[in-house]
Amino acid sequence: MSDALTVYFDFTCGYSYRAMHWIDLIPDLTVEWRTFSLKEVNREPDESWLEATSPPSVSVFAQALAHAARAGDYNRYHHAVFEAMHGEHLRLSEDEFLAIAADAGADVEAFNKDRGAWVARVGDEHYDAVEQLGAYGTPTVVLDGAAAYLRLAEAPRSEEEARTILDGLRGLASSTANLVEVFRPPAPPNPPIQIGQTL
User: Fold this and answer.
1) Which element (helix H / strand E) includes 34?
2) Which residue has the higher pLDDT, 112 or 175?
3) What's the rounded Cα separation, in Å, for the pair 136 and 181?
């Protein structure tokens, strides 16, 4: 069976990076990556980072370039940026993001001519997620019309593990329960001490 996901992401988010590796393990999964800005979520009142005239932000710049990269090899840009930022823990400059985008076939000259319009595209996707889905963080995954904020403790190591996560999401998406949030706390590092137990 072929599944389709929409994933709202931010390049600065380690959970989005893990989600990318999870998704990569499922070859028949169709994915639409959409931008969502954590910088915008945490902004001061009356100060947006996602308008054509907004002050520059390297994280929003990287996402704006992701829109430009859709005309080239989007996956190449997407993976290269995530691996540089999270796999190699690099702090990239605008010039380095532009070089990655150019390598992926994006028209960086056209991008540079109207950066504001590309930033506004990030804003369009971000506010669509907020207004239509109630999204507040990344990654927000949409499956069968249901949205879920998903944080993986670690990326799965096999296709079987990856599909188990997808099946779990499918179960939540199709549930008639009015779920707002599901949180599974980590197991305690040591078993709890029983009353009357000697140390």
Assistant:
1) strand 30-35
2) 112
3) 12
| Backbone torsions φ then ψ of 5, nearest 5 degrees | -125, 150
Locate the domains of the chain by residue range: 4-174
Q: Where are the alpha helices (DSSP H) in the chain?
A: 14-24, 38-41, 58-69, 74-82, 94-103, 108-113, 115-133, 159-174
H or E, element range at 148: strand 146-149
Helix (H, G, I), strand (E, B) or coil at 61: helix
pLDDT, one tens digit per residue, over 101-138 is: 999 999 999 999 999 999 999 999 999 999 999 999 99
Q: Closest Cα to residue 3, out of 144, 162, 107, 154?
A: 144
Retrieve residue 92's tokens: 């990239």
Q: Superfamily for 4-174?
A: Glutaredoxin (3.40.30.10)
- d(CA 27, CA 20) in angstroms, rounded, equals 12
| Pairwise CA distance, residues 112 & 136, whole Å | 29
